[in-house]
Amino acid sequence: MPAADAMIENEQVYRAGAYSLLAALLRAAPDQALLDHLQFLSPGDDGERDALYDAMSSLAEAAREQNPSLLEDEYSALFIGIGKGEVVPYGSWYLTGFLMEQPLSDLRDDLRLLGFERNAGTSEPEDHVAAIFEVFSVMIADASGLSEQRRFFDTHMQPWLGRFFEDLGKARSSKFYKHVARFGAAFVDLEQDYLSMHS
């Protein structure tokens, strides 16, 4: 494989892995295995420090200090609560102020066109942030074209993810998850630049 092709393939593996990691962190409180994985999160050693480098280092350090049972409480306070958590992790909420609105319908239409089917055992709407990250990770891993990725990102992700991560980072109960928010925000910013340059 030519060096340029290998570099592109490595980029896609990295991108898909980052989205899959964010999906896991936002789907449920991390267990000890995921925390152990996070401790070895490395931004690489190319000598450059940027927002993503600092965010990854911060998340890795925070993972070393966590107790999974306490993280269950933090996750519940942030995303579940009594009636509603401190942060609402749905695209429709950020785009319209309500759940189950037109953005969710539009997303479902796009998912059908892309060949995604809803899991019968899933109760969360498809515009949950973890579900969207899972879908995008699969799109990258399945080598969806970058122009298709950019259209999906610009339509269903970019308009609200920045505000979501900002709210998550500032939430009262956000201790470990403020580091997740910092990582997510830095990665999404980088992705916006990447897709603008390559699609």
The CATH level-2 architecture is identified as Orthogonal Bundle
Number of E-type strands: 0
**What oligomeric state is this?**
single chain
Mean pLDDT: 92
Overall number of structural domains: 1
Helix amount, in percent? 55-70%
What gyration radius follows from the Cα positions, in whole Å? 17 Å
Order of helices and strands: HHHHHHHHHH
Shape: globular
Distance between the termini: 22 Å
Query: What is the count of DSSP helices, taking H or I runs of 4+ residues?
Result: 10
Could you name the CATH class? Answer: Mainly Alpha
Would you tell me which CATH topology applies? Answer: TorD-like
Overview of this structure, please?
The protein has one domain: TorD-like (Orthogonal Bundle). The relative contact order is 0.15. The chain is mostly helical. The mean pLDDT is 92. Helices cover 68% and strands 0% of the residues. It is built from ten helices and no strands.
Helices and strands in order, then pairings?
Elements: H1 3-27, H2 32-39, H3 51-63, H4 68-79, H5 91-96, H6 102-113, H7 129-141, H8 146-156, H9 158-170, H10 177-198
Summarize the structure.
The protein has 199 residues and is mainly α. Helix content is 68%, strand content 0%.
Features:
199 residues, mainly alpha, TorD-like
